[in-house]
Amino acid sequence: MRRALTAPVAMPPDLYGRPRRDLFLGAISALMNGHMAAVRVLRRSTPTGQPVDRSLVVVVSGRSVEAHDDNVVALTLTRPSGGVLPPWRPGAHIDLTLPSGIRRQYSLCGDPAVTDRYRIAVRRIPDGGGGSIEVHDALPLGTELVVSEPRNAFAFAVPGYGSPARHLHFVAGGIGITPILPMLRLADSLGISWSMVYTGRSTDSLPFVPEVIAFGDKVTIRTDDVDGLPTSAELLTGIRPFAAIYACGPAPMINTLRTGADALADCEFHFERFSAPTIVDGRAFTVELARSGRVVDVPADVSALDAITSVLPNTTYSCKQGFCRTCIVGVLGGTPDHRDGTLTDVERADHMLICVSRAQGERLVLDL
Ligand code: FES
């Protein structure tokens, strides 16, 4: 997100390393979250200072196939005995711990006003590390799972309620519809001016098409098999002046959209992408894995996580973008080049997130 409206701009807090944080939105958000924040402060640690585990046990109480090519399944998650779940706002996600121990993050794509269930949707990714395959093939109805409380790395500021934008423009690529769907519902229910472009490989690959087209002519659906790869102008179909853009999808779509947003005089650009960020100014280094004594070469264009998982396939990770903390590792030697926006200075003294951070020198020794 790089361009502000001419009025003071409300920028969501950013967990992707983009630096600006808007004070006004912060104040609004603080008010909206006041009760929960107070509760969380009280629950943040035990008397001994140990972190409190705020995970929840839920049960898979619903399953549905949501794309015609059968590659997207939606799960409904409820408490085993029913009851209210922690609240969330559009853009939020939960961490799901699968029975195999794999941990993955999924956006909540249901209705925040429905307080007794969460809905997530998962695209089958055959070469994605196994998490989506397990969700598709090994989570029948009744399966109990551990999930985190909802967290929000893609905060949504509503015009008139924390944002000076006059129009919202949404862009979703395929499964990127999941965080966008609750935003559409909220914008529509508040009578805010909005437009949307929904894109993907083919109509059969797009999940939740019936829910999306129910919004009528505010939505433009275009697919690569019919229309070719989208241009930035096509991704901005329907946008109006003083817009805030919210986009979720693959990196090429986000990059194309960013080019179009650059050419607009007054807009905000908020995005969430699927893939790890491109490595900028990467230098090769080596990692010594202290527990086994193995040494791993990390090429300049490869993350430490990817290099390490080639020899330690069970290394835990989730977002690959430096915000979920799943890949945190102790540093026993060398100086990390911290590239996350998540760890505190105290944590950075002897830990790093190996999905995005690298080495300042030629060698790191990690507690792996
Ligand atoms: S995998 Fe999420 S912070 Fe590294």
Automatic annotation (TrEMBL):
Q: Which domain of life is it from?
A: Bacteria
Please list the GO terms describing molecular function: oxidoreductase activity
Output the Gene3D superfamilies linked to this UniProt entry.
3.10.20.30, Nucleotide-binding domain of ferredoxin-NADP reductase (FNR) module (3.40.50.80), Translation factors (2.40.30.10)
* Keywords from the UniProt entry: 2Fe-2S, Flavoprotein, Iron, Iron-sulfur, Metal-binding, Oxidoreductase
Q: Which InterPro entries match?
A: 2Fe-2S_ferredoxin-like_sf, 2Fe-2S_ferredoxin-type, Beta-grasp_dom_sf, FAD-bd_FR_type, FNR_nucleotide-bd, MRET, Riboflavin_synthase-like_b-brl
Q: What is this protein called?
A: PDR/VanB family oxidoreductase
Domain FAD-binding FR-type, first and last residues per copy: 52-157
**Record carries keyword Oxidoreductase:** yes
